[in-house]
Amino acid sequence: MKTMYVCNDTITGIFSAVYDAWKTKKSEDECGIAIQGMLERELFCEYCRTEESEKKAQAVENLIKKHLGRRVYWDLYHAALSEDREKGDAILGTMLAARRIPDSRRIMEHLSHPKVEKVFKLSRNVGGEAHSYKGFLRFRELVNGVLYSEITPRNQVLTCLAPHFADRLPLENWMIYDKTHRMFAVHEAGKKWILVLNEEPEQSFAAQISERELEYARLWKSFCRTIAIESRTNPRCQLGHLPLRYRGDMLEMSDVL
Amino acid sequence: MRIQESMSMYEKLNILTDAAKYDVACTSSGTARKGDGTGMGSCEQSGICHSFSADGRCISLLKILFTNECIYDCKYCINRRSNDVVRTSFTPDEVCTLTMEFYRRNYIEGLFLSSGILISPDYTMELIYASLYKLRKECNFQGYIHVKAIPGANQELIQQVGFLADRMSVNLELPTAESLRLLAPHKTRKNILTPMRLVQNRMTENKEELAVYRSAPRFVPAGQSTQMIIGATPETDYQIIQVAESLYQRFELKRVFYSAFVHVNEDKALPKRTDEGPPLLREHRLYQADWLLRYYHFQAAELLSEENPNFNVMLDPKCNWALKHLEQFPVEINRADYKLLLRVPGLGYKSAVRIVKARRLGVLDFSDLKKMGVVLKRAMYFITCSGKMMYPTKLEEDYITRNLLDVKEKLPEEIRNMGYRQLSLFDDVRFAGSFTGKAGGAV
User: Fold this and answer.
1) Which residues of chain B make contact with A173, given a CB cutoff of 8 A?
2) Residues of A in contact with B17 (CB under 8 A)
């Protein structure tokens, strides 16, 4: 009978489930991973709740980095951030498949394996969304000088964005709120960034923008309007590059001001 | 009209953005740089697009002119001195404040500073230098900066600016010296090529300096680019890509940008105004050919010739080339070398790399190619897998042309949506003539 390890939808959760499944030394057909909250029960399956711990997750991270290399870790990590229901299964399947090939580090070249292909797709999708948000995310300055941003991503991209902005704006206090997954990335000037889970911003907090903010928002909106060449106007091309789902959180696409 | 002092930042930005919008490049790629923790900013190798304007072009940099005052009178330019437009200038301080405030809100990836010529090339270049110096040294800005080198400015000054910028460009303006004389009477080809050569030489020297001292200051790390206007003057596509090719080879440019001519002035030296809009399809074909030169090991002379000097509007340059060289096809996917794979219509360089990697692990057939994401609708006429074609097809020019035209090339939206009319052979007026008697069964 197949054993499904059920875990939370976090990196720690998924890696802990991989840890449990890995220890039983079962084959691919005999074990799998399901995410709590996205569970679809199957027949002839035994469901087993994974107890998650930092220690297990760390062990799996080390295992991947040591035997599969950093680039494969990058793919597996990004796949784990995906919104996809079967991501845990794909990650476990890829790791098990890597055991059977002569050079495990080249596992991501074996795209004919369905689990590997899945990880490849998920990783590309998450990486793509994270890259888009590096550009499309907008900060606004609050009265206390904090730069504040809200995004609505499909995948959990905050941990991909935070290092980028920490490097870019090291001397600023900033926070990014992920509305979909209800979590924050918070950065205090000159310090390391942290992730805060299951929190919501206070209504009044985000609305109090600084005095100068309106002025720059107005300048930016007018810049975006002016830079377009009229005789080349082409909303469909714009739509292809900048899908509607990003626009809700973008200043220049909103009607206010 | 000369207005000073009283103009608000809002008005200034509007005027100087509007004046800068015809510049093509808005790329922020080519440099990777981590922030050093003391200021603001970093660069990603791939570049980052921050928004897209209503014409579908990417907004990555704060693209502005320093001033739209100009002592020159280039016929195609909105800012020429004989035009009656509101003139204004930024101060270096204003440029810095705008860049920093936009950057920290993540509106932009950096600054693209161009300028009209105020008083003299040297005077203008000094102002640009002052802006960049302040931005880099006082504000500690480590984001991307693209700056124009102004032809005729002092060499030492251009060099100093190069150490502060990531990318520099000198506009070629028009493809030939003849056209330049006609439309930009105050500019000469020699004047434009001198700073281009200077930047090239300095970049080469800088590579050696960096090899010795890793922390030596970097000179134009993202390379040099240029742009020219297409369709304002009677050059053929062949002349244009030959110019581009020699720029890549002799000046080691990173990119050549083509800009479809947009009517902004009335002038008897300019082509007559029509209601067809800018020649976007032609611009698109030139970009396609440009990619073939840079990434696909093609030579300009292979794509076009004196007898056949313009691109086919119906087919992309690579298909067009392949149809004229059917003796080199079909290509065997499992054996052909990488460079030959690159020449197959429909195969991109990513697909070619994937094929070369994957065939080491086993023999490939058409279903494997599909799994790898190789698009076969055009390639299928030109390739075999283990000696077999995908479907029985004829290796004949007319037959393949007919089928390729049925496939319908996926043109970028701006060209497909030229709207009111379909693509026709007569899209390009001069093209109609050169087509008679050639490629019989094309339509």
Assistant:
1) none
2) 222-223, 226-227
Element (DSSP H or E) covering residue A127:
helix A114-136
Rounded CA-CA distance B107/B143 in Å is 12
Q: What are phi and psi of B219, to 5 degrees?
A: -105, 115
In angstroms, the CA A45 to CA A213 distance is 56
Q: How many angstroms separate the CA atoms of A57 and B215, rounded?
A: 39
**Hey, are the CB atoms on A241 and B62 less than 8 Å from each other?**
no
B-chain residues near A235 (CB < 8 A): 54, 56
Residue B123 has pLDDT above 50, yes or no: yes
User: Please, what is the end-to-end C-alpha distance for chain B in angstroms?
Assistant: 54
pLDDT tens per residue across all 257 residues of chain A: 788 899 988 999 999 999 999 988 788 788 889 888 877 777 888 888 989 899 999 999 999 999 999 999 999 999 999 999 889 989 999 999 898 888 888 888 877 788 888 998 899 999 999 999 999 999 999 988 899 999 999 999 999 999 999 999 999 999 999 999 999 999 999 899 999 988 787 777 777 888 889 899 999 999 998 988 887 788 888 888 999 999 988 988 887 65
Q: What gap in Å lies between CA A127 and CA B214, rounded to an integer?
A: 31
Kindly determine whether residue B98 and residue A219, on different chains, have CB atoms separated by under 8 Å.
yes
Cβ-Cβ contacts under 8 Å, A226 against chain B: 13-14, 17-18, 21
- In chain B, what are the domain boundaries? 1-169, 317-442
Nearest to B55 among A167, A219, A234 (CB): A234
Q: Which of A168, A221, A239 to mutate to test the interface with B (most CBs of B within 10 A)?
A: A168
